[in-house]
Design goal:
By secondary structure, the chain is α/β, with parallel strands linked by helices. The protein has one domain: 3-Layer(aba) Sandwich (Rossmann fold). The protein contains nine helices and five strands. It has a five-stranded parallel beta sheet, sandwiched between helices. α5 links the parallel β3 (132-138) and β4 (160-166). α4 (106-127) crosses α5. Mean pLDDT is 86; it is low at 1-18 and 256-264. The structure holds 2-acetamido-2-deoxy-beta-D-glucopyranose (2 copies).
């Protein structure tokens, strides 16, 4: 009886304390995944590239996104295709799978991923002074890239030539995130399919979140990264991405399901 009273009290306290502190992103994530628990994706240390390369794309996989069957290392829906599109256009580029759990614990995962990105670029920079980098994030784990860019040490930022984001919750909840250094903001591309509620807060059309796997979006991001690596960077792209609404992904086709198991 005594225990019961205490636990009720504790629960009461927790709900009073936690509710008002929910961030915009936490509320958004709740809408996206509900009560579903995404377990951590196992990281495979042998997928970490060794030695030097001219260019490296650090990819933060989407929540719960496993590696593709065809020797994939970066996420079967998104990262593997993005990397394949990049290497088809430029030689000397390789990918780095950001080492973080990609689970539903996105707050904790974000910090783990952010630190992994910065530590990895720092270490790689010391060993391979000429290596250049790009960052790419998808869905809730675009947050990993976002906060890594916000925390990028000034001596490393110039080596990050391009940042490409897809379905980034930081667009819907900018108040939760730190300022991106101007240098990196000028090298930034946001991809938000009109209606995708992870990034476009004017709509509620979660199926649009699956658009990024389509060639239109994938090639857009890959090209942005490749041009930057080749020394002919395109201008930063923000609002334009949000307006992109080609006929084949017309908003009327909006569904309510989460689609393809990539619930993020
Ligand atoms: C580029 O990405 C698309 C998916 O959007 C994929 O179908 C295509 O195979 C990729 N291209 C290459 C060269 O891998
Ligand atoms: C980093 C970032 O969030 N950049 C932009 C994303 O897109 C919106 C609108 O399209 C811009 O207002 C942000 O500056």
């Amino acid at each position: 009886m005594r225990t019961l009273t205490i636990s009720t009290l504790v629960m009461g306290t927790v709900s009073v304390v936690l509710q008002p502190q929910q961030t915009c992103t936490q509320k958004l994530m709740k809408t996206m995944v509900g009560n579903m628990v995404i377990p951590p994706v196992p990281m495979i240390p042998s997928n970490i590239p060794t030695g030097c390369s001219d260019f490296e794309v650090l990819i933060a996989r989407g929540g719960g996104e496993p590696d593709g069957s065809n020797n994939g290392k970066f996420g079967m829906y998104f990262g593997d295709s993005l990397m394949a599109n990049i290497t088809a256009m430029i030689s000397g580029a390789r990918g780095y799978p950001v080492q973080f759990p990609a689970s539903t614990e996105f707050d904790k995962d974000g910090v783990i991923g952010r630190d992994d990105i910065i530590n990895s670029i720092r270490k790689q920079s010391a060993a391979c002074p000429n290596q250049k980098y790009a960052l790419a994030g998808i869905s809730n784990d675009a947050i990993v890239i976002h906060i890594a860019a916000a925390a990028m040490p000034a001596e490393l930022a110039p080596k990050v030539l391009a940042i490409v984001q897809y379905g980034n919750p930081a667009m819907a909840c900018p108040e939760d995130f730190g300022k991106i250094p101007d240098l990196l903001m000028a090298r930034w591309q946001e991809n938000c399919s009109k209606g995708d509620n992870t990034c476009d807060k004017t709509r509620n059309c979660h199926d649009r979140h699956m658009d990024y796997m389509k060639p239109l979006w994938m090639e857009r991001g890959a090209k942005f990264i490749v041009e930057a690596f080749e020394g002919t960077p395109m201008g930063a792209e923000f609002g334009k991405a949000l307006l992109l609404e080609p006929p084949e992904i017309a908003i009327q086709n909006c569904g309510t399901g989460h689609g393809m198991g990539m619930d993020m």
